[in-house]
Amino acid sequence: MNPQSVAILITALGGLEAIKWLFNTLLHRKANARKEDASANAAEIQNLLSVIENLNTQIERYDDRLKQRDDKVDAIYRDWRNAQSEVQTWIQKYHELELQWKEAEVRRCNVRGCANRMPPSEY
After folding, report:
1. How far apart are CA 9 and CA 34, in angstroms?
2. Which residues, 6 or more positions from 109, have their beta carbon under 8 angstroms from its beta carbon?
3. Average pLDDT rounded to a whole number, residues 92-118
4. pLDDT value, residue 32
5. Which residue has the higher pLDDT, 40 or 123?
6. 61 lies in which domain range?
7. Domains in the chain, number
8. Is residue 57 part of a domain?
9. Do the domain assignments include residue 92?
10. Cβ–Cβ under 8 Å, residues 123 and 107
């Protein structure tokens, strides 16, 4: 290749601007690579931050739902314990009445007037 054909080729490719671009690319390729890596890293970090933010909102929503469920379960257990205590009270009253009825049955006098009490008793 003679110098004249090289000059024609350079002018066909863009002239002085092509030479500047070629030198700029050769001289600053590491810096340009670092800039591209930095912008890619920044975009990746931004993407990760948005993912983290979305996950945090989901976690907050799930925590709220879990708290509501816990409150419902606590209310159900409270009602259940109240019902159990009410049943226990009724059972206790039933047994007291049953004992009073048995006692009254033992004290009952079969003879009117109770002069000759049947069955004999100390009452």
Report:
1. 31
2. 117, 118
3. 79
4. 79
5. 40
6. 3-106
7. 1
8. yes
9. yes
10. yes
